[in-house]
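Prompt: Have a read of the protein record below and flag anything odd:
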Amino acid sequence: MVVMCSRSNVLIHLFLPHVSRTTPCYKCPPPSAGTWRPSPSAGISTLGNSSVGFSTGQLSTANPSVIVSSLSVVSTVVGWNQGQAMTLIQKLLSSGRFKITNSKDLWSLGTLITGVPSATINSISASEILTATQSPTLVNNLMTAPTIIQQTFVSKIISVSSTSSSIITNVPNALATQIPRNFLQDFTQTTEVVTTLNQKTWTQSQSVLIFDTVATAVENANDISFQVLQGFTCTRVQTLTKVKIKSLIRGCRRRNKLKLKLQQTQLTCMYYQLRGESDAADYSLYPADMLLYYDYSTVKNCKNYFTELGFADFTVLTGAYESYQTTLVNNAKTCLGITGFNISAANINILGNMVCLLTGSYVENSDPSILEKLKNCDDLSTSQVTGMETLLLSGKTKYGVPSTWTRETPWDLDPLPLYFTSNLWKEMNRREARRFIKTFIKQLRRQGVPRRKIQYIKREFQQAHRAKRDTAIECTVGAITQIQINDDAFPIDYDATQFNACLSLTVLKDNLPEITDKIDQDDYRQVILEKLNQAYPDGLSDDVVQMLGPVSRRATTDDISKWNITKIDTLSSLMKTSDGDWSENQTKAIMTKYFAASNSIDSSVLNSLGGSGVCSLGSGVLETITSSSLQQADALPVSSCSLDKKKVLFPIAQAAFINQTSTTKRSTTTVTLTQYQLIQSYLGGATESFVRTLASSSVNMDIDTFLGLDQSVIQTLSVSDVKSLLGDTNVNELRTYSSNAIVQDWISRQFQTDLDTLGLGLTGGRATPATTTNVNGNAGSATNAAATTTTATTAAGATTANTTASGGASIRPASGLYCLLLATVVSALYRLQ
């Protein structure tokens, strides 16, 4: 079938009237400045969302006056990509007839708001920004804008009034995630404040700061949003009653199909709070993930236990708890009487998500209903994929033999097609399979599925339906045009060689954001970079760099040296975590270009870099970070930094969050819980004195934070120090982590008698020191000799006095006899060797 321009690309006719509506799409000539003849804006109004069919190159040749006159329509189009939106905004501003200076201008942009540069937003008065964000439509459109744009809006709103109550009132609920954490403290617990906090969207690092403000004011935990409950920590609940804590834990249980994702340290805290309670065995009352940490010896009804545990996310078991996965599977098999690899439908229903831990042998030989449970797994192992395919290829499932599948059948298996190998794809009709993949990939992108998984499905499909790799240098498959690029499955019909041969520089430049968004395989990305170097021999502009997306990760430091990275928008787009990781050298090269444009590190830069990016910077650069910048930034996870870099960052964080000026009088010997949680991610570089301050501040530090402290600092802590630091609840984690190298090292430095006071069964401590008798006849530890007066008598009975560190007098043997005695002991030890 020939696709006509009058269908999916009807826009081309409106902007290129010389092209017939019946001209096949592949014959549509590429637009250029000379052929671009925009029709009246009334014509554009008939296009609707089809307008997104224009390439960035086509839009760039449009007459600015037409864009201005068509704004009322263009601004309602849903689906503009970032490159298209940026191009249209540039056209509007270059027309001389449109400026972005107030709230009305921002409202008129509609969906094009995503293409406005952050510098333009910054140039608008804060009061106008505040007025603009009163529009739900504008806020909704902002949610698809780059993060830097959202942050800029929020920053402007905060500048109107920086009091905590004003901020949460003025910042729209959906944009609350961009509020710097430093502003989320000292709330008055009024009904209005609590209600507002409970309605907003928060990050986990924000929610820990507002948790108790809401939790203590709302009686029914089921009325507290998951956005707030994700801030549950032992740090915050320590002042609450046991009844209240239990209520909050129950409130974290799944609600219909909604499930609250909690971290392991939160779940273990919950378990220790409930352990020993009379209703702890009422498994259906609590979050399924918390049940993972139960002491199985206390489980009363194993079938009920595993039924509820089946709703848990077993991937949360990490670190010292990872071995629990195998133990739980074995206990479940014993409880349910499972002896072989064949698991019945009834038992599969009980196991639930635990099937995600089973090997492929179970998948292959169990009741076919196991496939329905596999759909809930975050990922599948190679063994599980093999078992799944063996089962599907057998035709024993309700889906039938793959050769009979239509494009609808894989949808019934969603998301399992993510893991299909070429062995299965080649059994399915190619036409039906391709039609499915086209729509499936589109959905995966919309859902934010990792690109590596999309890359996998493309590769496996290609392997299944290509007899041999095409090594021809010339393009034999067909030139790549906008039509192919607009196919959601693109470039599935091209291997890397043909992709290189069939993609012209002109098409690449005109469709760059559309292409880079759909390229998931590294060899294809390399082709794009090489072609861009040819197309732009003098280097890539900021606008082009912003459109690179995941393709940028294939760049060498030499490539990066030719890029223009002068704007925060460019830096922010490059550092998007969803596009992949950067190496340390790549990050340094990027920041070198950014700094060369007379830019410095502020909170926007820190947020763009994230923790791993910050850790890639040199210590000299880190020292230039100001406390105010760190104060306004997100909580940066800097655990991957070297110890030296952590030590550079810590005093900056200390100045930002501990030594800050506040209307509330701060103690100089302790820190508040809010201060602790603000600085928590930077504690890897904390000094011994500061950690001791935390120990006296009842912060109830979690085990992950403890293990992230400077090991030399941990070594100086006594048993009582650590108990005070972790609190009565988290100190229990020392038992689970007793095999951890850091914990073992700490244990080996403590007296066993001190370790025994914890009641955790920790072993490996030092022997209890010998005691001596002081002049008063009291027993005392040798380690306390500096505070006592003791006597030491030689074999000859000669004694001598000596002053201790505390000013007391002690008795020592005369120097001559002392030396003789010492020589005798050394000689004896030598003979023993």
